[in-house]
Amino acid sequence: MSKTVSHLTSMKRSRSDAAYSRVSVKSQTVLPKQVREVLDVRPGDTLRYRITERGVVIDKAPRATDADDPFAAFAEWNGAADEEAYGDL
Prior knowledge:
The chain is an alpha+beta fold. It has one domain: Pemi-like Protein 1, Chain: D (Ribbon), CATH 2.10.260. It contains 2 helices and 3 strands. A 3-stranded mixed sheet has the order 1-3-2, with no helix packed on it. The protein is elongated and about 55 Å long.
């Protein structure tokens, strides 16, 4: 059974819009440049893999918002002066 990898965009796609990458012995792969550009993937971004009946959908995971971060309330104490004053505690 063949699995498909898709990306979510509003662009029209043709059957020739295929990109390939090889999986290493450590199960790692490099995202092809075409895929990185379409998904606007940058270093540090997280990808989301969703398994569907039609295959696997890969898209860029939404970034965590301050509402999702329990430590966001302490961001005001995250400056260089604070690090210098309290870094050795």
